[in-house]
Specification:
- The protein has 207 residues and is of the alpha+beta class.
- The protein has one domain.
- It has four helices and eleven strands.
- Strands 1, 2, 3, 4, 5, 6, 7, 8, 9, 10 and 11 form an eleven-stranded mixed beta sheet that branches.
- The longest helix has 20 residues, at 159-178.
Length: 207
């Protein structure tokens, strides 16, 4: 099956905490149980091609000192686990940014989705972990992909995708080696094989 588009994100400890539903214990970020992708103006066109259907959802947002309910257009579809394709597809939602975080769109409640349940996280010792969401002619799929798998030339990932992800990770790790006391870098991006576009983002800077 030909992969059309892929979005990916390196899982940092905060992202893993959200899988364990520990986000509400965080002292920053409001305890949201989602994965964030930014800059949204870069990701939105790709997400719209992957998930063209939208539905109106009520979103609780802050207006001044008060909380209000606001209707927003959410990309809605279904997703399957590539490691368990016999199971039916599950509802999948990609939300636009909130007013508080206008930079980032978000995958809602990833811990509820079969591809991203915390119990299927790869074991320690396989390098960094990425969450992949991709589209082919059968729909959307999700999986965790480890650094070791991406660096293994015998694994059947498209070479352009492998290079795109690893080049961004290598940049992040080079920076982290030079700044060992600083937080790890957020790595995310996409490859659109149909349009030939790809972008990666490391920290708050585009690559």
């Amino acid at each position: 099956m030909a992969v059309r588009r892929v979005i990916f994100k390196r899982l940092l400890e905060g992202d893993k905490d959200k899988l364990r539903r520990e986000g509400a214990k965080a002292t920053t970020g409001g305890g949201a149980m989602d994965w964030r992708f930014g800059p949204w103006e870069e990701f939105d066109p790709v997400v719209a091609r992957m998930i063209p259907t939208t539905d109106v959802r009520a979103s609780r947002r802050k207006a001044g000192n008060a909380w209000v309910h606001q209707d927003v257009d959410v990309h809605v579809g279904t997703i399957r686990s590539s490691s368990e394709p016999i199971f039916p597809a599950e509802p999948f939602e990609f939300w636009p940014p909130t007013d508080a975080r206008p930079f980032e769109g978000r995958i809602a409640t990833p811990y509820k989705l079969r591809p991203f349940r915390p119990e299927v996280l790869p074991p320690a010792g396989e390098g960094e972990i990425f969450a992949f969401v991709w589209e082919d002619e059968k729909g959307l799929w999700g999986a965790y992909v480890t650094e070791d798998v991406l660096r293994d030339p015998n694994q059947n990932w498209p070479p352009l995708l492998r290079k795109t992800v690893l080049d961004a990770l290598d940049e992040a790790q080079t920076w982290e080696h030079a700044h060992p006391k600083s937080p790890l870098r957020n790595v995310r991006g996409y490859v659109d094989f149909q349009t030939g576009t790809r972008r990666t983002f490391v920290g708050t800077r585009s690559v």
